[in-house]
């Protein structure tokens, strides 16, 4: 079922586990993630960045593909289709296209403007039963060509945005997108604890889940993180498996060039990565 992320994240927050957001890039990606969620009996959030939205021929195409797969693959676990790091215009476009969840990333605006734009979207999403993620404090690293410096969010600003009625809140706590550098200082749990205390029941979102050590992930969940975004790790797993297939010369043997064969190892690698994450996050059998 395509559903809002609200109920699954409230359950996760209360149950001290996290639901994974896995970003999709094409049909194989989407199918791998949906099948793994069903096999693990886990709720799941499919993330779509604006760049991936363009790549996949627009939001309507994606809604059609995901709804079709849910039906044809008999997916019964809760699935949210979520815009990742949306602009104000992108969020509105996804709401109109039939997404069940959107993120408005106003973290690069002054806090007053972030609040004004987030408030407008809260009203639009509430009317339609769509979940809304807001962000305070930019998350470092590169996403679709935009490089953030990475900062820790102000807990008072987090409280102000949480009180607007958003469904979930992303807050920078030293996390970054992409691979972490060797000299990374780690997550700032003092800041996370302070944000969690101020925002109460609000499910918190941890972006940049690739490469954060398992003990830090578990501690973050214990401090109120209920949604964890995974993107780069699936890309690395897919690329490594595809590279091995080609380097082993399998595309040159028999009908190994058939895209259904060529992409199969990458597909399986995504499935393994997603399953590992669902086990780590504690969402298995929580559908
Ligand atoms: Zn992010």
Tell me about this structure.
The protein has one domain: TIM Barrel (Alpha-Beta Barrel). The protein is built from twelve helices and ten strands. The mean pLDDT is 94. α9 links the parallel β9 and β10. It has an eight-stranded parallel β-barrel, surrounded by nine helices. A two-stranded antiparallel sheet has the order 6-7. It has helices spanning 6-15, 27-40, 50-55, 59-72, 88-97, 111-128, 155-162, 189-199, 214-222, 232-247, 259-262, 264-281, and strands spanning 19-23, 44-49, 79-86, 101-104, 131-136, 141-143, 146-148, 168-171, 204-206, 225-230. The chain has 287 residues and is α/β, with parallel strands linked by helices. The structure holds zinc ion. Zinc ion binds at residues 85, 139, 143, 177, 207, 229.
Task: Please tag this protein with its features.
single chain; 287 residues; TIM Barrel; 10 strands; globular; binds zinc ion
Q: Determine the fraction of residues in helical runs and give it as a percent range.
A: 40-55%
How far apart the termini lie comes to 11 Å
Largest beta-sheet characterization: 8 strands, parallel, barrel
Order of helices and strands: HEHEHHEHEHEEEHEHEHEHHH
Number of helices: 12
**Beta-strand content:** 15-25%
Query: What small molecules are bound in this structure?
Result: zinc ion
CATH superfamily: Aldolase class I
What coarse outline follows from CA principal-axis ratios? globular
Total number of domains: 1
CATH class: Alpha Beta
